[in-house]
Write a structure and sequence with these properties.
Blueprint (H helix, E strand, L loop, with lengths): L1 E2 L5 H10 L22 H28 L12 E6 L6 E7 L6 E9 L5 E8 L7 H10 L7 E9 L2 E8 L4 E5 L5 E2 L3 H12 L25 E6 L10 H4 L8 H9 L4 E7 L4 E13 L5 E6 L5 E5 H7 L1 E4 L8
Antiparallel strand pairs: 1-12, 2-3, 3-4, 4-5, 5-14, 6-7, 7-8, 8-9, 10-12, 11-12, 11-15, 12-13, 13-14
Keywords: Signal
């Protein structure tokens, strides 16, 4: 979850401890486009191309679903339904809502990113009932602030795993933003979102701590992608230890260095300050997935959430900081 009011420290910790996870209702849907009585050849061709690309996206998403469903934590994905929705204007990203067959409960999600070279990459994914962009989470977040969900039109916007928001517009045209996971309102303005989206539009979010060169190609529509290895293990609550506050982060962690620790069963605490330091994410990586022809993904649980999110390790390193977790009585 995203935390704000980072200073003083005790206020932030109190907010973390008391933050509640979301409950139930849907956001306003966008207006349907007006019907046209005529269809030009150019429009028909464009619609055909869009339909073909969407079909290709669905095919690729189905392959990733089937591959992940072989793992115990994704067993509920077997034969699950996939619902694709575009994420905001100009982002070239799609949310894949994964649900039990016949309109059942949500069991996870995927984010697909279309690249300029025609390939599609798996941007992130996760298992559980409370992943990204749940309308129920948004309702809880608004009601917590004494606001009525019916007074807002909501638009999903996604720039990166740690810059994902609901854009909310009220009846007076005023804009607010809420975190895509918790539904909590963020202390940011439209310029903050635009800057975050601009920084991530061409590559990754960079900081001087990270070594961010992606060692593998994104997963293309044509080439099959397989899980080659994985591990998950029990982590703990980083808020109980405060390693992320009291010790220095790993210096310039490469994907290989992070994988080495995770392969050994060592969890890594994690923080990411986003939107110019106005929001803070705290969590822990306690597992990984390695894919053929794609980057390695870390298994993250963010503070205040039970959802499991798999994020490319290089993207997480570019956006924030990793902290080694020492076993009891030992040094990290």
């Amino acid at each position: 979850m995203a935390l704000h009011s980072l200073r003083p420290l005790m206020a932030a910790l109190l907010a973390l401890t008391l933050a509640a996870l979301p409950a139930a209702v849907s956001a306003a849907s966008p207006l349907a486009p007006a019907a046209s009585s005529e269809t030009s050849p150019q429009l028909a061709a464009s619609e055909a191309d869009a339909g073909a690309f969407r079909s290709a996206l669905e095919t690729k998403a189905s392959r990733w679903r089937d591959e992940l469903s072989r793992l115990p934590e994704f067993a509920a994905w077997k034969s699950a339904e996939l619902r694709l929705e575009p994420l905001g204007p100009g982002t070239h990203a799609w949310l894949v809502d994964v649900r039990q067959a016949n309109g059942g409960r949500p069991v996870g999600y995927m984010i697909l990113n279309a690249k300029d070279d025609g390939t599609v990459e798996l941007g992130e994914y996760g298992a559980g009932e409370s992943p990204l962009f749940r309308p129920s989470a948004l309702r809880r977040g608004l009601e917590k602030e004494g606001l009525r969900p019916a007074d807002f039109t909501a638009l999903m916007q996604y720039a990166s795993p740690f810059a994902a928001v609901w854009r909310l517009e009220d009846r007076q045209g005023r804009i607010r933003f809420a975190d895509a996971t918790s539904g909590e309102l963020l202390p940011i303005q439209e310029k903050d979102w635009n800057q975050a989206a601009k920084r991530t539009s061409s590559s990754a979010i960079y900081n001087e701590n990270a070594s961010v060169t992606k060692p593998n190609k994104p997963a293309s529509l044509a080439k099959p992608v397989r899980l080659t290895s994985s591990r998950s293990f029990r982590g703990d609550d980083p808020l109980q230890r405060l390693a992320w506050l009291l010790q220095a982060p790993l210096a310039a962690p490469s994907e290989a260095k992070l994988l080495q620790r995770l392969q050994a069963g060592t969890p890594l605490d994690y923080t990411a300050e986003v939107f110019g330091g106005k929001a803070l994410y705290i969590g822990q990586a306690a597992g990984f997935h390695r894919w053929s022809e794609a980057p390695a993904f870390g298994a993250f649980r963010m503070a205040g959430s039970t959802a499991l999110r798999y994020v490319p390790l290089v993207d997480a390193a570019a956006a924030g900081f990793f902290y080694p977790v020492a076993a009891p009585g030992s040094q990290a």
